[in-house]
Amino acid sequence: xxxxxxxxxxxxxxxxxxxxxxxxxxxxxxxxxxxxxxxxxxxxxxxxxxxxxxxxxxxxxxxxxxxxxxxxxxxxxxxxxxxxxxxxxxxxxxxxxxxxxxxxxxxxxxxxxxxxxxxxxxxxxxxxxxxxxxxxxxxxxxxxxxxxxxxxxxxxxxxxxxxxxxxxxxxxxxxxxxxxxxxxxxxxxxxxxxxxxxxxxxxxxxxxxxxxxxxxxxxxxxxxxxxxxxxxxxxxxxxxxxxxxxxxxxxxxxxxxxxxxxxxxxxxxxxxxxxxxxxxxxxxxxxxxxxxxxxxxxxxxxxxxxxxxxxxxxxxxxxxxxxxxxxxxxxxxxxxxxxxxxxxxxxxxxxxxxxxxxxxxxxxxxxxxxxx
Length: 372
Description:
The protein has 372 residues and is mainly α. It has 2 domains: 1-7 and 16-233, no CATH class; 236-372, no CATH class. The protein is built from 12 helices and 2 strands. It has helices at residues 16-25, 38-59, 65-68, 71-95, 99-117, 143-168, 180-201, 209-226, 251-271, 280-301, 308-331, 338-360, and strands at residues 137-138, 141-142. The radius of gyration is 21 Å and the shape is globular. The two termini are 40 Å apart.
């Protein structure tokens, strides 16, 4: 790593791949500093890597405990989700970019996982599709499922773990967690994992070549665009949070509800029977509208400063729908261990908000900041 914290290649002439990576990252970052607690940095990296599969797969019920904790499955999920979220976080940090870049890279991640590895974007026989195998399927692509999972992975699998990690370890927010060598290892672990999953799931369904190649091109194009995307696309429009403090509903509760309703409404739109009377194009537009509306609301309300506690409430709101789902799966549907997973995440949510509140010295019910 160079003096600015960027990726430095000792012999760039011998390794064109990493020379190109250096150009893409711009070689920028921030100094590591000899006084940095490396143990805490490693802990932050592991927490981030574990949060992604635990939230996206275990808490959601996509991989219940018996499946999730199978050593082979766990290694595969950690190699995909854990390595993927670390790559996204490290690239955005080394580029000096913000949430716009993270979200774009999150979309690229979604296509890499669901399009290239699992091929669920194309496979009409994918187990989780239900009637989405036919509803919205066109040109050998499950379009409603594709849009829903792109939103899900960009927000839940990538952005949410990074947000939680930033709030738990704020001292590393503009610093890289991985060294040059560690980044290389994690980068290749991710792509090897994608290749292994692609081969494993290739035995049941082989997608059309044109669609598969376009998915690969989309990943490359999004990767390049993430380096250049304007941060202003998702930047807050006010210096301080602008939620008005109500008599009953606090700004924190409003932010939490925003996160919950975002995931809940997307879930209903993608899988709910009430949308089946609509043309699939309208359902897809509805999914985009929910995402855009939520983004605009958060841009207007969260603010730039004095907003860490509100961010924590947003994270808990995003988790809360999945927590509710895990409790239903565990105690109503009888899926072994899911109820305990939900209870564990309830406890984590209380701890998480408390930790952020103590660190920031924020009141229990945060109110809009006032410039002095």
